[in-house]
Known about the structure:
Layout: H1 23-31, E1 37-40, H2 41-44, E2 45-47, E3 64-67, E4 75-77, E5 86-90, E6 99-102, E7 107-108, E8 112-117, H3 125-134, H4 136-143, H5 154-158, E9 161-164, H6 167-189
Parallel strand pairs: 3-7
Antiparallel strand pairs: 1-9, 2-8, 3-4, 5-6, 5-8
Amino acid sequence: MKDNINQQGSLFDMPVPTVKTSKLEALVAKLCPNRVEWKTIEELCFALPKGTLKQNELQSSGKYPVVNSGREFYGYYSKYNNGGDTICIASRGEYAGFITYMDDKFWAGGLCYPYKSKSDKIILGKFLYFYLKNIENYIMETLVARGSIPALNKKDVDKIKIPVPPIPVQEEIVRILDTFAELTAELTKRK
Length: 191
């Protein structure tokens, strides 16, 4: 594993701007004058339960989606093993390293690593998702072992470092990125 998983040149590594041009920059300048602390996923999150399902246990539609090792849901199941505000990282196969955010109950399959923030007073689940999504290609290209079946080791995931700005900064980043995602979805619908 690479020792330095921090993305250089991020908002949190830059000097505090002297001219505040946005609410986010103002929050960073006020609440992070000496930069932010970085912590590992292992320090910030609980690893959640997961379970393998047989193909004949899956449904094509249903109440609880099954997250496994792909970009899409693996299917649906009548039970759940995790609640919402959770991230999942595909651990095996073509999409190993792909990041998913689940805001409601779901079944985590055996080929993903589900995580939940230990405290939403320290790190928001959605902020963690957006940060990991931002470095998703880095994870896929650097941490995924490419062999006959691409694989991502949980020990490597646990050591990924995450910036931990104050909660108001995280909330503003999530607000901005959620708005951007909504606008993008709206534009995509109009095609």
